[in-house]
Amino acid sequence: MRKLVYYVATTLDGYIAGPGGGDPSGADYFPLTPDVIQFIVEQYPETLPWPARAALGIDSPGQVFDTILEGRSSYEIGLAAGMTDAYPHLRHLVFSTTLESQDPAVEIVRNGALDHVRTLKTEEGKDLWLVGGGTLAHSLLPEIDRLVLKQNRSVIGSGIPLFNGPFQSHMFQPVDETLLDSGIRVLTYDRA
After folding, report:
1. Where are the domains of the chain?
2. CA nearest 66: which of 93, 37, 30, 42?
């Protein structure tokens, strides 16, 4: 069975973006250091948007994921950069009750997110990449099988939380940790 993997960068205090949302990549609290880029290229090259893949000469299919799941706000980061589908090499689903279709290759899921993901997990294929945001991650928390957190050395005090919603308790156990030269730790947890 396919796994739902929440693979995302976070601060020490559990934020995936600053208070204004938007693309935090390259911000001082989420630096794109050479070791982070090398880690992504070696371990998760399919998580790079197509312009980065093209610039790096990556054209292979995904190693871990063949499907990306994201919320409307996360998807709109790509739209703001002029990309209606930043990941054409993956099956692309956006969960939104209000977004109008921007690209025929991008599937809009209007309701029933949890049931939709349960169905996706029974299909043949590689794992499902949950890119964000925090509200979607919270709604899919019962189905998240693995967390892969690129934990940066920063504390920002407020912003978009890793999980944005009411209290619910779920236990995960650590299964791997990679410390990069820049001080960023990649922490992997599986559902306990």
Report:
1. 4-160+180-191
2. 93
The residue whose two tokens read 């919320």 is 71
pLDDT exceeds cutoff 90 at 62 = no
Q: Which tokens belong to 158?
A: 């407020």
Give dist(CA 155, CA 101) in Å, integer: 36
Distance CA 92, CA 82 (A): 16
- Torsion angles phi and psi, residue 137, rounded to 5: -60, -40
Flag whether pLDDT at 65 surpasses 90.
yes
Distance CA 40, CA 17 (A): 19
What burial class does residue 162 get, using C-beta atoms within 10 Å of its C-beta: 0-12 exposed, 13-18 middle, 19+ buried? Answer: buried
C-alpha to C-alpha distance for 185 and 17, rounded to whole angstroms: 17
pTM listed for this prediction = 0.96
Distances (CA, A) of 144 to 13, 129, 137: 20, 10, 8
C-alpha atoms less than 13 angstroms from C-alpha of 139 in its C-beta half-sphere? 17
- The answer for 135, left when phi > 0, alpha when psi is -120 to 50, beta otherwise, is alpha
Q: Is the pLDDT of residue 17 over 90?
A: yes
| Structure-block tokens of residue 116 | 């939709």
Class of domain 4-160+180-191: alpha beta
Rounded to the nearest 10 degrees, how much is the dihedral formed by the CA atoms of 149, 49, 123, 5? 0
155, 161, 167, 170 alpha-carbon torsion, rounded to 10°: -80
